[in-house]
Amino acid sequence: MGNVLADIAFSTTNLTKLYGLTTALDRVDAEAPLRSVGLLGPNGAGKTTLIRILLGLISPTSGSFKVLGLDASESMNEIRDRIGYSPEFSPMIPEVSAMKYVAFMGQLSGLKSVEASQRAHDTLHYVGLGEERYRPLREFSTGMMQKCKLAAALVHDPDFVILDEPTDGLDPKGRKQMLDLIKRLYTEEGKSVMVSSHLLFDVEKVCDYVLVLGQGKLISAGSISELLMSDSDVIRVRIKGDSSRFAELLRNKNLEVTLDDGYLDVARVDNIEMILLEEIHRDPNVSLRYMGRRKQTLEDVFVSIVEGRSDME
Amino acid sequence: MSDEKKTDDTYVRKFGFRRFSGVRENRINRVITVAWFNLIESIKQSGLTKLLLIFMFFSLLIQDALLIVLSTFLPFGIIGDITITELFRGAYIDSVLGMVSLTNRITTPLTASMSFFTSFTSVTTSFIWLLLLVRIGGGLIADDRLYRTTEMYLSRISRIEYLIGKLGSLVIFSCIIVVLPALIQFFLLGAGLQIDLLFHLDLLFWAFGFTFTAAVILSFFVLSISSLTERRNVATLASFILALSLSILPTAIGGAFATGTAFLALDFVGCIAVSALVILGFDSILVNFQTVDLFDNAGFEAYMSFASTLVVVLICGVIMVNFMYREGS
Questions:
Q1: What CA dihedral angle connects A296, A209, A122 and A95, to 10 degrees?
Q2: DSSP letters along chain A, please?
Q3: If phi over 0 gives left and psi between -120 and 50 gives alpha, with beta otherwise, what is residue A44?
Q4: Residue B22 domain-assigned?
Q5: Is B23 contained in some domain?
Q6: pLDDT grade, residue A152 (50/70/90)?
Q7: Segments in chain B below pLDDT 70
Q8: Which one of A17, A18, A51, A57 would you mutate to disrupt binding with B, by most B Cβ within 10 Å of its Cβ?
Q9: What does the pLDDT read at residue B90?
Q10: Residues 99-128 of B with CB under 8 A from A
Q11: pLDDT computed for residue A5 by the predictor
Q12: What's the pLDDT at B16?
């Protein structure tokens, strides 16, 4: 939970947002480092509300927040200039070309007309829309629109880029391109990125830090590598021989075993490695091929966090 | 293929992403950007708007030319006992008022004797202006709501900047097609009648103040209707019908009940014109060529024109505030 980096993308203190009687955010104290951050949570968890508050689109009912070290109550305009935002939906002005749209967004963020046009050209090239930049937005496919939104989010050179469902509606190729772009933004351009997505695989691929929200509360936060390591209580074994029979044998020893694509996943108990080695050695019909800690995916971690929490269902 | 990719990569690396090290524009320039962008795009997108603009141009041309030709060639005997100064002031005021009053023709008693001729002027100007305003303004907020661009604006500029920018679109437009022609008309008419304009500069300032105020109020009205719906056509039609029917209602109701002129207060567009005349010092006006005393404590009174305009502005203000601060708008 603690943050090892001095630079903070944003921090919230007791952030609460009520929509009538519905609590969208409930006293959230969160901190996100200037890294590539994933914002996770089931539907209704408060992800979009948090993003909208950070952008100044809505005001919190109570609590305060800072973005890039700037207090929102004093410097919202400056914060807006330093954030790039690509929303989940596709906002557009149908008859306007991508070039004009992105340049206009740049001008709204304070770029001069000529500078905005130059940067719009460059940014559209950067996201891979160089050839299509003069086509009207109404002709854009979902994938092109996602790239155009990313270009609009980047045109004014923000320090912190917020991407809400950036791969939504993309085909596998488009999704890979988009994820590569996001990764480049972070690794090569030095942008701090926050990706809100339902697709945990995407977050795992491009983010190194996650915030998990549930029912308006912060459930968990930390670097992905720590999260994947910390809860790895399953030993993965591959044997030569009858896996099903050997799994049954282990169950008879009161071990929790599941079969997964030829692997045996055994829940950790004291001295589990020794117990497994003894059983394999004792059985002449099996021999060991692999034994190690099962690598978790972010999905496993997410499910384990959510599991058993009534407030997340 | 690989060469192409390499070239493209090089280009991207060289020009693809640069740090921005310049100075950002101030907030006012951003508001002007919103106003100008929306205005230009609204005009570009609509063929009808372009056609109406051409009509407007000829309407203004005819309006100016007609006044000058009439005043130059008509023998004064026909238009009654009227001095050249009265003719200039009366004709100019009527012409400028006509740009705003819709079906109820609001004019000054100065040119009562030549009302037939002056009624020709600005007959179409106010109508086309309203048509253009609703055509351009109808989609200003409705389209943003439909295509969800409001959020993109508000993630970059504040709500009040957004609102002023949108309002600015219509005000700039009105300034070009109404305020500017009104000012040009002052000089054309003065030159046509060979009047020393220095003695009538008060009219120039009045014309500017009146047309500009009318432009802001009407723009605000159209914009507030636009914020009520996601459909541009609904907003356009609703704004037009509302403004027009409010102008027709007083005559219709007044005629039906054969009572006084108090119903004129319903015509808020006309009330802007009436207020302008009161500010200019007139205590009676001509409405559809009938004299209405504004200070006789009977029927339509001067305060009603101000109150009517104020009520509409307040209602529009409430609609806009509701839109701007509604959660999730």
A1: 80
A2: -----S-EEEEEEEEEEEETTEEEEEEE--EEESSEEEEE--TTSSHHHHHHHHTTSS--SEEEEEETTEEHHHHHHHHHHHEEEE-SS----TTSBHHHHHHHHHHHTT--HHHHHHHHHHHHHHTT-TTTTTSBGGG--HHHHHHHHHHHHHTT--SEEEEESTTTT--HHHHHHHHHHHHHHHHTS--EEEEE-S-HHHHHHH-SEEEEEETTEEEEEEEHHHHHHHT--EEEEEEES-HHHHHHHHHHTT--EEEETTEEEEE--TTHHHHHHHHHHH-TT-EEEEEEEPPPPHHHHHHHHHTT-GGG-
A3: left
A4: no
A5: no
A6: very high
A7: 1-16, 64, 67-68, 70-82, 111-123, 254-260, 327-329
A8: A57
A9: 82
A10: none
A11: 40
A12: 63
CA distances from B248 to B132, B222, B244, B263 (A): 19, 18, 6, 10
* Exposure on the CB side of residue A27, measured as CA atoms within 13 A: 0
- Residue of A51, A85, A108, A162 to mutate, interface with B, max B Cβ within 10 Å: A108
- The verdict on A109 touching B (C-beta cutoff 8 Å) is yes
With contact defined as beta carbons under 8 Å apart, do B238 and B244 qualify? no
Look at residue B212 in the predicted model and tell me its pLDDT.
94
Nearest CA in chain B to A112: B25
Instruction: Give A294 to chain B, closest Cα distance, Å.
Output: 39
Set out the domains of chain A in order of their start, with CATH numbers: 8-228 (3.40.50.300), 233-294 (3.30.70)
Asked whether residue B20 is assigned to any structural domain, the reply reads no
Query: Which residue matches tokens 């936060």?
Result: A221
- Contacts of B182 by beta carbon, 8 Å cutoff, 6+ apart: B95, B96, B99, B207, B208, B211
A112/B157 Cβ within 8 A: no
More confident residue, B37 or A301: B37
Of A85, A110, A152, the CB nearest to B24: A110
> What's the CA gap between A281 and A271, in Å, rounded?
16
The stretch A178-193 carries a mean pLDDT of 88
When divided into structural domains, chain B yields a total of: 1
Query: Could you count the other beta carbons within 10 Å of the beta carbon of residue A18?
Result: 15
Q: Which residue has the higher pLDDT, A117 or B122?
A: A117
Place of tokens 């999730």: B328
pLDDT tens-digit profile of A119-135? 999 999 888 888 888 99
Q: What is the pLDDT of residues A25-65, one digit of tens each?
A: 999 999 999 889 999 888 888 899 999 999 999 989 999 99
What one-letter code names the amino acid at B155?
S
Q: What confidence tier does A292 reach under pLDDT thresholds 50, 70, 90?
A: confident
Q: Are A202 and A167 in contact (CB under 8 A)?
A: yes
Range of the domain at B143: 29-325
pLDDT of residue A111: 93
Q: What is the predicted pLDDT for the residue at B238? A: 94
DSSP-derived pairing of the beta strands B106-107 and B284-287: antiparallel
According to the model, what pLDDT value does residue B241 have?
Answer: 92
B16 belongs to a structural domain: no
Cα B167 to Cα B159: distance, rounded to the nearest angstrom: 12
Report the half-sphere exposure of B211 (CA within 13 A, side-chain side). 32
Q: CA angle at residue B88 from B248 to B73, to 5 degrees?
A: 100
User: pTM for the whole thing?
Assistant: 0.82
**Angstroms from A208 CA to nearest CA on chain B:** 23
The region of weakest confidence among A74-83, A221-230, A259-268 is A221-230
This model of the complex carries an ipTM of: 0.83
